[in-house]
């Protein structure tokens, strides 16, 4: 009973306290290492990252959104929305009304991004706050006529060291203060495509470089006196799986290329038919047993990938490790984009700072859950989103959080205590209510009265 009272009291105390323990305004740095597959943490050594985790929190698997590509998932992280809701439905898109095309080299038109409001825009609108970005997808685009106060135009040739230097300078010396910043790096995605995740020798070298960059990041924050006050989230957009020239699905063997426009190729192909949709669907349906073919309206509900005009009439989804190609397509030894239920597609999340517990591990969250958590840390009112703040409460130091087994244990314990107390009360009531047994009147020895009956 005492334990139950303590837990309830501490929960009320924490919930009332809210964000008061944080310095004002709080600062948050969001870092993405593209293509960092979750189980790299178990299969390779990361001394710097593990030290970061030891003093913070780790989410072992982050379930990302379908399709598991770079642009869509980076936008889901900062909006908390599924792709059908935020509108960045692929790395390559086509809008049939405006006839516009989107690609990683043609991504600056706000038209594509304005269906959602990313967190850096929301943060910009807060009084006396600003945002900064080092090449996070979308940050160099005027979304809703707003860019971060400080940002870098995307260029893969700019080193991580230069990006880090810019971000930490803006975090340290800006007026109004930068309270939200993002930092993006292309590895280990580029090497995962080139070598495949099963190439242990090359991936070990690349991942050691990533770990060294994390060491540089921590050291820079410490040198500038930011380490103890800033909240840092390190995560990724997707994982990576091994591909092979023995696992190819050649569309040219199934349907004449003149019968459709190919908007996106592999492993999720977006098909805009030039012939009757049903006819094109029937041809593709027979193409290969290692590829699922969906009419837009039949895409499984669990993908949350139906309700947007940028999703094409026919979607092809290859099985894990299979590649959809045309006759002249080049093969990548590693790829992503597959079903988001596959563990190989999942990234991880690690976080450190005054908002987070120390030495805490959590099994899984959804990638859309990151957004409401970040809004809470920054004290921002989130826009409507598909995330659930409750999924991340256990990561936060000022949130009362118990697991389901703990909750069941507390309920059972409370019932046992109440049952025991009830039994004790009933026993005591029974004792006091039982009539005293009849006893004959006892006369005192010195009683002078004569007995009434001789």
UniProtKB/TrEMBL annotation:
<dbReference type="GO" id="GO:0047710">
    <property type="term" value="F:bis(5'-adenosyl)-triphosphatase activity"/>
</dbReference>
<dbReference type="GO" id="GO:0046872">
    <property type="term" value="F:metal ion binding"/>
</dbReference>
<dbReference type="GO" id="GO:0005886">
    <property type="term" value="C:plasma membrane"/>
</dbReference>
<protein>
    <submittedName>
        <fullName>Bis(5'-adenosyl)-triphosphatase ENPP4</fullName>
    </submittedName>
</protein>
<dbReference type="InterPro" id="IPR002591">
    <property type="entry name" value="Phosphodiest/P_Trfase"/>
</dbReference>
<dbReference type="Pfam" id="PF01663">
    <property type="entry name" value="Phosphodiest"/>
</dbReference>
<dbReference type="GO" id="GO:0007596">
    <property type="term" value="P:blood coagulation"/>
</dbReference>
<dbReference type="InterPro" id="IPR017850">
    <property type="entry name" value="Alkaline_phosphatase_core_sf"/>
</dbReference>
């Amino acid at each position: 009973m005492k334990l139950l009272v303590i837990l309830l009291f501490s929960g009320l105390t924490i919930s009332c306290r809210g964000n008061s323990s944080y310095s004002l305004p709080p600062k948050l740095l969001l870092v993405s290492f593209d293509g960092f597959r979750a189980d790299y943490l178990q299969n390779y050594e990361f001394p710097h990252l593990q030290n970061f985790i030891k003093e913070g929190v780790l989410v072992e698997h982050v379930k990302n959104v379908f399709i598991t590509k770079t642009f869509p998932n980076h936008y889901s992280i900062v909006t908390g929305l599924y792709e059908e809701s935020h509108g960045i439905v692929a790395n390559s898109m086509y809008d049939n009304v405006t006839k516009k095309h989107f690609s990683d080299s043609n991504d600056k038109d706000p038209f594509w991004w304005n269906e959602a409001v990313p967190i850096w825009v929301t943060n910009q609108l807060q009084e006396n706050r600003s945002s900064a970005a080092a090449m996070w997808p979308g940050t160099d685009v005027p979304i809703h006529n707003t860019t971060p106060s400080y940002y870098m135009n995307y260029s893969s040739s700019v080193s991580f060291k230069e990006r880090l230097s810019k971000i930490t300078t803006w975090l340290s010396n800006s007026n109004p203060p930068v309270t939200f910043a993002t930092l993006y790096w292309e590895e280990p995605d580029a090497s995962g495509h080139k070598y495949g995740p099963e190439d242990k020798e090359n991936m070990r070298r690349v991942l050691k470089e990533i770990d060294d960059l994390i060491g540089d990041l921590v050291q820079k924050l410490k040198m500038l006196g930011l380490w103890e006050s800033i909240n840092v989230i390190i995560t990724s957009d997707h994982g990576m799986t091994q591909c092979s020239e023995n696992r190819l699905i050649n569309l040219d063997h199934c349907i004449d290329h003149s019968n459709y426009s190919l908007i996106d190729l592999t492993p999720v192909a977006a098909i805009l038919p030039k012939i009757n949709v049903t006819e094109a669907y029937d041809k593709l349906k027979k193409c290969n047993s290692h590829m699922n073919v969906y009419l837009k309206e039949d895409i499984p509900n669990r993908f949350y990938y139906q309700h947007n005009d940028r999703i094409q009439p026919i979607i092809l989804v290859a099985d894990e490790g299979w590649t959809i190609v045309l006759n002249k397509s080049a093969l990548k030894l590693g790829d992503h984009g597959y079903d988001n239920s596959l563990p190989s597609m999942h990234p991880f999340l690690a976080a450190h700072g005054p908002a987070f517990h120390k030495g805490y591990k959590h099994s899984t969250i959804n990638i859309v859950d990151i957004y409401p958590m970040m809004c809470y840390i920054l004290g921002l009112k989130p826009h409507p989103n598909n995330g659930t703040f409750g999924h991340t409460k256990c990561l936060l130091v000022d949130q009362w959080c118990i697991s389901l087994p703990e909750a069941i244990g507390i309920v059972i314990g409370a019932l046992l205590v109440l049952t025991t107390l009830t039994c004790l009360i009933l026993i005591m009531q029974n004792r006091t209510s039982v009539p005293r047994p009849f006893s004959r009147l006892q006369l005192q020895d010195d009683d002078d009265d004569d007995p009434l009956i001789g």
